[in-house]
Every structure is written in C-alpha cells, then in structure tokens.
Amino acid sequence: MEELDHRIVQLLAQDGRLSYTDLGKATGLSTSAVHQRVRRLEERGVLRGYRAIVDHEAAGMPLTALISVTPVDPAAPDDIPDRLRHLTEIDSCFSVAGEESYVLEVRVGTPGDLELLLARVRAAANVTTRTTVVLSTPWEDRSPLAAGESTA
Amino acid sequence: MEELDHRIVQLLAQDGRLSYTDLGKATGLSTSAVHQRVRRLEERGVLRGYRAIVDHEAAGMPLTALISVTPVDPAAPDDIPDRLRHLTEIDSCFSVAGEESYVLEVRVGTPGDLELLLARVRAAANVTTRTTVVLSTPWEDRSPLAAGESTA
DNA sequence: TGTGAAAGGCATTCGAT
DNA sequence: ATCGAATGCCTTTCACA
C-alpha cells in the first residue's frame, strides 16, 4: 500500500466522517482524487466500512469479559462459531492456538447477565468455559496500521 | 436510553456514514429531529466518534494475538498501561481479574514482529507475558447494545 | 492518476408549533 | 421535541490532461 493511501486510511480510521474536501487538504490532493482513492480502497476491501463508536457504559453494557472456550467433545465437528453467532452479547470471536479453542469478547449489563450468557454459551456450543472479567479498559480499538512498507 | 435513540445508535453502529436524511426515513422522524438527537447522543458521550473499519490483512497487520501480562514486581506501583501506550501495535488494553493483571490485544505483521513486540512489552513494563496466537477471527466488533430497557 | 467545474444532495440552522 | 424551509458545503460525476 502506497504512502498516500496509507495516510488516507489512517485519517479515516481516526475520523470516519472526514469529508473528501478535508481529506484532500490533508493529503494535498484534489477532492476528486481522494474520492477516487477512497473508492478503490473500499473496493479492494482495505476500508471495510464505517461505524459509530458506541460507549458501552452508556449503551447499557458496562461489563466486559473474556471467555475461553473448550469443546466438551473434541471429536465433534467444530461449528462452534456458527452455534454462538446468535448470541449478540458476543462482540468478537477468536479461534486461538493454545489450551482452549476460542476466546470470546463479550459485553453484558450485569454479573447476572454474564452468568446467563455463560449458561447459553455452554448449552449452545457444548463447551466448557473459563471467564476473565475485565475490570477497566485503559484503551481499546486503536486499529494499528503497518508503518511504511509496500503491500501492493 | 429511549427506544428511538437506541434505534439510531444501532443504525449508526452498523453504518457510521448514514445520512440524517436516511436516518430520518428509518426512524420516521424529520431530518432535523434525528440530527438533534444524534447531537445529543454525541454530547452525552453515547456516540463517541466515527471510524473507518480497516482490514488488518490489507493493512499489513495480519497476525492477531492476545498477551496476558503479569508484573515482575507486584509491589511496584502499577503504571503498566502508561508504559505500554506508546506501543502502537497494542490495539486494546484490558485490566482483568484473575491470575494475570492485563490482557493486550495486539496486531502485527509477522511472527518475528510479535517476538519483537513481546520483548518491548516486557522491557517497557517489567512484566512477564503469556501469549495466545489468534488463528482466525470468525467475527469481530459487533458492538452489542442493551436490548430494550430505559437508562434515562 | 490527476484536475477543475457543474449538478444535485445533504448538513446545519432557524422560526414556528 | 418536532417540523419544514433556506443556505452553503459536500459528494459525485464528467470532460479533459
């Protein structure tokens, strides 16, 4: 990825609503030039979309936890993500190397909600769980970009 | 939070670039009414900003890992997040309950980069680490919202 | 890839309800 | 709180280099 595109991605990762006009000023390109570059970045899948960042506390989901998941039956076909996808409290689902198979990042309102969620996770996917409660989040979602090489 | 605001937040969490016009159509409000509500949600801190979602692979950071961090000296004052903040590969930093003190979500380009990052984490914060490599990510960042209660 | 201009849409403000 | 209208700015497209 070229330096100019890199810059554009970086700026949009910080402020997804930057206008093409401002993006042009920031990069020294014309409005239509940045517009074209952004379109291409979207088509290539580098820019996968735009989202509002919601405060979890304000959204009524102040409790974050990490749930490590192990299948009860290691011989069963692994469709665990499919079995868990309907649980909307699961923010992210990672398949991991290590003792456990998956790590789930979840958001709930209360410890009671977490207890219920764990029961639903175990029931839906036939797994055991090990849960780590998040006490505070010094920072989150900084979306790092590679420094300056080409991946053309 | 009221039902209408909830809906607005949900829509913007999915598409942060939705126009107020479209938001109005989706909620049955006028453009200026949704505009005012969004402004208030931003002021209250419910909507914390807008970001472009960047594909990690395309951004040159295809390797994700979770690093559990334990202080070498439990008596030392805990300024670990401050000591780690400059490491831009760290996407998120969670303070957690459990055997370890923090869990870091990191993105790097290669296993070699991960090795270097671990050395920098240990040196910067005087900690030991336990690393879990992410093999694949069935999904990520769904930003769940509380279902339907009032938090006015 | 880049530019600049033209057209239409949208954000933003305001007075009224 | 909501609406509808008015004004600029912005997006989007197009002809051209």
3D structure, described in words:
The structure is a homodimer of 152-residue chains. By secondary structure, the first copy, chain A, is α+β, with helices and mostly antiparallel strands. Chain A is 36% helix and 29% strand. Chain A contains 5 helices and 5 strands; from the N terminus they run αααββαββαβ. Chain A has helices at 3-14, 20-27, 31-44, 80-84, 111-125; strands at 47-54, 63-71, 90-96, 102-108, 127-139. The first copy, chain A, has a 4-stranded antiparallel sheet with strand order 3-4-2-5. In chain A, β3 (90-96) and β4 (102-108) form a beta hairpin. The longest helix of chain A is centred in the C-terminal third of the chain and has 15 residues, at 111-125. Chain A is elongated and about 55 Å long. The N and C termini of chain A lie close together (5 Å). The model of chain A has no long low-confidence stretch (mean pLDDT 94). β3 (90-96) of chain A pairs antiparallel with β5 (127-139) of chain B, so a sheet runs across the interface.
